[in-house]
C-alpha cells in the first residue's frame, strides 16, 4: 500500500486550513508513535544486553579470566550449568520430536477433518498450562511413578554391556553411559526433568510441524495416491521431504524453549554441578535458569553478578539457537 | 502394484483399493492383544490397567502388523502399523494433560472446597499469621498480586505491541522504514525466544542499575510488570500483525478515496475491522504471561498479605506462591493445633497443608488461564468481522 494516494481535499472541513493542519498533526503523531514503538523494540533488546552486561560486569572483572589471580573462574562456574542445560534440553527433544511429528501427522493427515481442529486445541491446551503447574505435577505425581522405569533401565542397560577393559578411557565403563550410575529415590534426576520438559515443548513443535505438513501441495499428494501409494507412502515420499526444513526449525524453537525453561527443572531436579552423563543419578546436574532461580534470593554483590553473567550466557545461547531457527523458517517459507 | 496382489478370495477384492480388510479386524487384533497382555500380566502377578494398556498396545502393534502382512501384503501392513503408531503417539501426549488436569482438579478442588474455617475460604483469605502446619490460609493476596502485575504488564505491552504491529503493517512499506520493519520483525522473533528467567534478570538489573547501593534488595511489583512485558510484547506484536494484515486493502483504499486521513483510516477502519482478532490475540498473550513464574521469583519476592502498591514493597503472586508452598514441603506437627499469633485463632495441624495449598493455588491459576482462553475463543467466534470470511 502506498501513502501517496491520499487525496488532500476534505469535503466537510469547517475551515480548510485548520482541518488540513489537524490532519497533518494527527498523521504525524500517529506515524511517529508507530515508528517510535518499532524503535523501542530495538532499544529494548539492546537494553537487555546492556543492562545484563552492566550488572554482570563486577563478576567478569573480579574473575580469574580477567584478573588472572582471583579465586573464582567464570568458565569453571558456568560450564557445568551449560552442560546440564544443554543435556536436559537435548534429551527432552529426543523424546519430544518423534512424538510431536507423529501427532502433527495425526492431526494433519489421519484424524477426520471435523475432529482435527478440536484435537489441535487439545494439544494447544498443553501449551496453556503454566510451567509452575508442570513443575508441581512433575515433582509430586510423576517422579515416584517413573521410579520403576528408571530401575528397569538402570538394571538392564546400566551395567550389562560394558566396554572391554583393555580399551583406553572407556575400558570397563558401561556402553550405555546414560542409564548407568546409582539412582536413588526420590528420582529427582535429570531424566525426570527432561520428561517434563519434553511435555512442555511438545505443543510448540507440534503446532509448527502441523502447519508445515498442512502446506504440502495437495496435488502432489493426490498424484502419489493416484499412483497407488498407501497413506504412509504418501507421507514418507511427499509430506516428510516437503516439511523437512520446517520440522528442523520447529525443533530448534523447541530447543530454545527447553534451554530457557526454569520452573520444571527447578522444582524437579536435585541440583549438582558435574559433567556426569548418568542422567538417572540424583544430584549431578543443574541448569542455568534453575540455578539462577534457586540462588537469587540469597545472592548479593559479586554472587548476584555471577548469576547475571550465567543469565547472559543463556541469553546468548538461546539467541543463537532462535536466530538459526528463524533463518531456516525464513529461507523455506516463501517456497510454499 | 502387482506385488501386493495375493491369493485372497476374489469376493473380498475391491477395485477402488487393495485394502480389503474392514476396520473391525484391527479392533479384533487389538482386543486379542489386550487379552494376551492381561493374561501375561496376571501370570506374572503384575496386573494394572495402565500396564495392560501399554503392553496390549505393543502386542497389538506386532499382531496387527503380522495379521495385515499375511492378509493384505507388506505395504498395507506398514500403512496399518504407522496408523496405529500415530494414534498411539496422540494418546501418549494426551496422557500428561489428562493426568495433570485430574490431579489439579481433584487435589486442588478438595482443598478449596474443604478449606477451613469455611468452604472456599481459600479464595478469601491471605497467609498472614499462618505458621507451621496450620490448616488454613489462602491465596487472596497472591491472586490480587497476579492480577495487578499482569494488568500493569498489559498496560505497558499492549500499546507498544499494537503500535509496533501498526508500524509493521501500515508504515514499513518503503525506504528506510522498510529496512527498519525487517529489523523489527527479526527482533520480535528473537524476543519470542527470550528465556523467562532472562526477562526476570532484565527487570531486576534495569531497576538495580538506577537504585543506590544500599537498596539492592528492593523488590517491587512494577519490576515484575516490566519483566513480564518483555515476554508479552512479542506475542502481542505477532498476533496483532497477523490480524491487521487480514484487513482487506479495499477497505483502506475506500477510506482514502473518501479523503479520510491515514491515521483516522487506521483507527476507524483497520483497527475496528480487526478488533475481534486483536482482542483474541491480546487475551491469549495475557493468558500466557499470567502463569510466568521465573521472572516474578526474581523481581517481586513474596509476602503474606495483600499489597496494593506496585511501587512499594514486595508482592505475592499465584505462581510464586505455588512454588513457595511446594518448596515448604511437608509441615511439622508437634501438636494437634496451631495458634495464629496475629488474631489468636486456633487451627488444626495438617502435615500436608503446604502441598495442599500448592495444588489449590494451581487450580486457581489454571481456572484463571482457562477462563482467559475461553474468553479469547468466544471473542474470536462471536465478534470476528463477517467481511473477512
TrEMBL record, chain A:
The keyword Amino-acid biosynthesis does not apply. It is a multi-pass membrane protein. Residues 82-325 form the ABC transmembrane type-1 domain. It comes from the Bacteria. Signal peptide: none annotated. It is found in: Cell membrane. The chain crosses the membrane at residues 29-54, 81-107, 119-143, 193-214, 262-280, 306-329. Keywords: Cell membrane, Membrane, Phosphate transport, Transmembrane, Transmembrane helix, Transport. Part of the binding-protein-dependent transport system for phosphate; probably responsible for the translocation of the substrate across the membrane. Belongs to the binding-protein-dependent transport system permease family. CysTW subfamily. PANTHER family: PHOSPHATE TRANSPORT SYSTEM PERMEASE PROTEIN PST, PHOSPHATE TRANSPORT SYSTEM PERMEASE PROTEIN PSTC. This is Phosphate transport system permease protein. It comes from Brachybacterium epidermidis.
From TrEMBL, chain B:
It is a multi-pass membrane protein. Residues 143-376 form the ABC transmembrane type-1 domain. Keywords: Cell membrane, Membrane, Phosphate transport, Transmembrane, Transmembrane helix, Transport. It is found in: Cell membrane. InterPro entries: MetI-like, MetI-like_sf, Phosphate_PstA, Phosphate_transprt_permease. The chain crosses the membrane at residues 21-43, 49-69, 81-102, 149-172, 184-211, 217-237, 269-290, 358-379. PROSITE patterns: ABC_TM1 (PS50928). CDD domains: TM_PBP2. It comes from the Bacteria. Belongs to the binding-protein-dependent transport system permease family. CysTW subfamily. Part of the binding-protein-dependent transport system for phosphate; probably responsible for the translocation of the substrate across the membrane. This is Phosphate transport system permease protein PstA. It comes from Brachybacterium epidermidis.
Amino acid at each position: 500500500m502506498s501513502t501517496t494516494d491520499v487525496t488532500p481535499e476534505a469535503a466537510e472541513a469547517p475551515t480548510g486550513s485548520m482541518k488540513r493542519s489537524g490532519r497533518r498533526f494527527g498523521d504525524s503523531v500517529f506515524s511517529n508513535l508507530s515508528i517510535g514503538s518499532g524503535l523501542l523494540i530495538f532499544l529494548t533488546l539492546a537494553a537487555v544486553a546492556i543492562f545484563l552486561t552492566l550488572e554482570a560486569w563486577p563478576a567478569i572483572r573480579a574473575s580469574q579470566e580477567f584478573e588472572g589471580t582471583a579465586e573464582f573462574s567464570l568458565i569453571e562456574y558456568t560450564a557445568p550449568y551449560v552442560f546440564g542445560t544443554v543435556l536436559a534440553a537435548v534429551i527432552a527433544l529426543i523424546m519430544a520430536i518423534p512424538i510431536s511429528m507423529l501427532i502433527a501427522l495425526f492431526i494433519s493427515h489421519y484424524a477426520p477433518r471435523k475432529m482435527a481442529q478440536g484435537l489441535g486445541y487439545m494439544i494447544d491446551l498443553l501449551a496453556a498450562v503454566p510451567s509452575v503447574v508442570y513443575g508441581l505435577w512433575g515433582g509430586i505425581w510423576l517422579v515416584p511413578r517413573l521410579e520403576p522405569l528408571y530401575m528397569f533401565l538402570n538394571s538392564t542397560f546400566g551395567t550389562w554391556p560394558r566396554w572391554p577393559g583393555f580399551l583406553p578411557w572407556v575400558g570397563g565403563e558401561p556402553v550405555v553411559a546414560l542409564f548407568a550410575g546409582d539412582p536413588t529415590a526420590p528420582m529427582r534426576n535429570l531424566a525426570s526433568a527432561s520428561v517434563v520438559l519434553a511435555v512442555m515443548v511438545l505443543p510448540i513443535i507440534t503446532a509448527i510441524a502441523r502447519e508445515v505438513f498442512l502446506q504440502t501441495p495437495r496435488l502432489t499428494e493426490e498424484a502419489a495416491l493416484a499412483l497407488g501409494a498407501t497413506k504412509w507412502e504418501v507421507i514418507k515420499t511427499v509430506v516428510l521431504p516437503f516439511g523437512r526444513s520446517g520440522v528442523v526449525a520447529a525443533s530448534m524453537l523447541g530447543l530454545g524453549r527447553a534451554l530457557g525453561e526454569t520452573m520444571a527443572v527447578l522444582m524437579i531436579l536435585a541440583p549438582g554441578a558435574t559433567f556426569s552423563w548418568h542422567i538417572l543419578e540424583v544430584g549431578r546436574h543443574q541448569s542455568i535458569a534453575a540455578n539462577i532461580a534457586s540462588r537469587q534470593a540469597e545472592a548479593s554483590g559479586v554472587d548476584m553478578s555471577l548469576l547475571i553473567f550465567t543469565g547472559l550466557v543463556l541469553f546468548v545461547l538461546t539467541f543463537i539457537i532462535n536466530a538459526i531457527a528463524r533463518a531456516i523458517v525464513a529461507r523455506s517459507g516463501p517456497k510454499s | 502394484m502387482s506385488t501386493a496382489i495375493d491369493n485372497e478370495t476374489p469376493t473380498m477384492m475391491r477395485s477402488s483399493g487393495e485394502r480389503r480388510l474392514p476396520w473391525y479386524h484391527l479392533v479384533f487384533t487389538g482386543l486379542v492383544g489386550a487379552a494376551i497382555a492381561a493374561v501375561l500380566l496376571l501370570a506374572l502377578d503384575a496386573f494394572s490397567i495402565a500396564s495392560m494398556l501399554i503392553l496390549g498396545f505393543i502386542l497389538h502393534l506386532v499382531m496387527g502388523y503380522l495379521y495385515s502382512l499375511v492378509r493384505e501384503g507388506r505395504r498395507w501392513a506398514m500403512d496399518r502399523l504407522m496408523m496405529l503408531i500415530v494414534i498411539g503417539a496422540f494418546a501418549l501426549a494426551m496422557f500428561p494433560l489428562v493426568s495433570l488436569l485430574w490431579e489439579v482438579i481433584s487435589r486442588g478442588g478438595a482443598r478449596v472446597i474443604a478449606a477451613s474455617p469455611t468452604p472456599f475460604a481459600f479464595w478469601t483469605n491471605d497467609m498472614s499469621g499462618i505458621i507451621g502446619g496450620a490448616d488454613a490460609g489462602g491465596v487472596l493476596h497472591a491472586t490480587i498480586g497476579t492480577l495487578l502485575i499482569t494488568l500493569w504488564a498489559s498496560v505497558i505491552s499492549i500499546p507498544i505491541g499494537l503500535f509496533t504491529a501498526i508500524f509493521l503493517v501500515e508504515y514499513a512499506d518503503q525506504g528506510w522504514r522498510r529496512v527498519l520493519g525487517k529489523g523489527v520483525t527479526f527482533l520480535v522473533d528473537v524476543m519470542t525466544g527470550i528465556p523467562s528467567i532472562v526477562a526476570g534478570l532484565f527487570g531486576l538489573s534495569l531497576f538495580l542499575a538506577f537504585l543506590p547501593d544500599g537498596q539492592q534488595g528492593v523488590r517491587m511489583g512494577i519490576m515484575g510488570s516490566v519483566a513480564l512485558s518483555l515476554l508479552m510484547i512479542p506475542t502481542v506484536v505477532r498476533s496483532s500483525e497477523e490480524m491487521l494484515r487480514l484487513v482487506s486493502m479495499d477497505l483502506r483504499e475506500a477510506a482514502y478515496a473518501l479523503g479520510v486521513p491515514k491515521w483516522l483510516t487506521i483507527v476507524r477502519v483497520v483497527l475496528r475491522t480487526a478488533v475481534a482478532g486483536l482482542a483474541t490475540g491480546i487475551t491469549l498473550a495475557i493468558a500466557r504471561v499470567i502463569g510466568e513464574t521465573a521472572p516474578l521469583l526474581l523481581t517481586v519476592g513474596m509476602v503474606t498479605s495483600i499489597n496494593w502498591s506496585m511501587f512499594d514493597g514486595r508482592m505475592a503472586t499465584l505462581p510464586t506462591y505455588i512454588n513457595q508452598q511446594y518448596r515448604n514441603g511437608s509441615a511439622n506437627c508437634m501438636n494437634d493445633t496451631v495458634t495464629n499469633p496475629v488474631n489468636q485463632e486456633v487451627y488444626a495441624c495438617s502435615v500436608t497443608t503446604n502441598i495442599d495449598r500448592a495444588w489449590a493455588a494451581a487450580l486457581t491459576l489454571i481456572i484463571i488461564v482457562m477462563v482467559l482462553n475461553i474468553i479469547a475463543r468466544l471473542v474470536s467466534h462471536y465478534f470476528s468481522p463477517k467481511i473477512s470470511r
